[in-house]
From TrEMBL:
Name of this protein: Putative regulator PrlF
Keyword Endoplasmic reticulum found: no
Stretches assigned to coiled coil: none
PROSITE patterns: SPOVT_ABRB (PS51740)
Species of provenance: Kiritimatiella glycovorans
Native organism taxonomy: Bacteria, Pseudomonadati, Kiritimatiellota, Kiritimatiellia, Kiritimatiellales
Any matching Pfam family: MazE_antitoxin
Record-annotated SpoVT-AbrB domain positions: 1-47
Length: 82
């Protein structure tokens, strides 16, 4: 079991093992789902389309095929697991 300590200001540092497992990065949002009085589940919040709109476009960049995009995503996932 991985643990964290709550500060006097109510802050937590998510342990690195948990961040890595959930693929969390600086600026990512996390939801706490409370079950009863004694349990909470931590869940990454996915980004909405509005939050990421336009981030893929760079002036002068050539268009990529679906196959190229899929290959790039697969490569990035392999790098993260490595």
């Amino acid at each position: 079991m991985v643990t964290a300590t709550l500060t006097s200001k109510g802050q937590l540092t998510v342990p690195k093992a948990v961040r890595d497992s959930l693929h969390l990065h600086t600026g990512d949002r996390i939801a706490f789902i409370v079950h009863g009085d004694a349990e909470a589940v931590l869940k990454p919040v996915t980004k909405s389309v509005d939050e990421v709109f336009g981030r893929l476009h760079s002036p002068g960049q050539r268009r990529k095929s679906v196959e190229e995009m899929n290959a790039a995503v697969a490569k990035r996932m392999r790098e993260r697991k490595g």
